[in-house]
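Sequence in, structure out.
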Amino acid sequence: MELEVKKTTNQSLVRALSLIDILSDYPNGCLLAKLAELAELNKSTTHRMLQTLQSCGYVQQTHISGCYRLTTKCLAIGQKTLASMDILSIAIPLLNKLNQETGETVNFSMRQHDHAVMIYKLDPKTGLTRTRAYVGQHLQLYCSAMGKLFMAYDKPEYLAHYWQQDPMRIQKLTDNTIVVLDDMTQELRHIKEVGYAMDNEENEIGTTCIAYPIFNFNGDVLYALSVSLSTAKLSQWDKTALMGCIKDTAKAISYELGASAY
């Protein structure tokens, strides 16, 4: 009996966490029916769990009946987690400096299994163009500059595993998105040769991203930084100077993590 109770409790916890995870993709709220469909639960079970999460302060209803979203309590927990990461205390001053030097959007991410997770972002100093990325966002590896870096510096067999594990996630978001395994193999080989990655409007039309890896003392790439800007604005830049700024920042952070060479 005790084992059955424990199993039920764990199952409920997993389901509740799944609802939180799904709601994180719907900042403006998600309808109960849609949420139940995505979680593969019936509506009554979903509603019951939402009521529990609401009573604990993690979920609230929007002004639309039957629509739910996460509360700022989740944001507070996330920020406390990020604040506890030593990497940010090292990286933030250097990322701020890069943002000041370039005036462009600066992104910083960490590797988490088959995703890159945005853990710090600075908006551009000039202009009105803003990217859709946000802190806490899970970025797909195949269509983001930082994600492609993580794949390029992983074990050689990882790409095939990633590609075959969930073929449905490989979608053509723009005309430039790489969706053929052989093409991605060639792309990652090129990234290792030049030492940086680019998102050439592969995720969002009109936006280009240039990313450099962050190495630790073992030579592993667990973090990456990038600068995003409009493709039109990139054409006005001295590209060599811009990439030099990004690389110098990545090198400085890497050295702080004990990397012996870059």
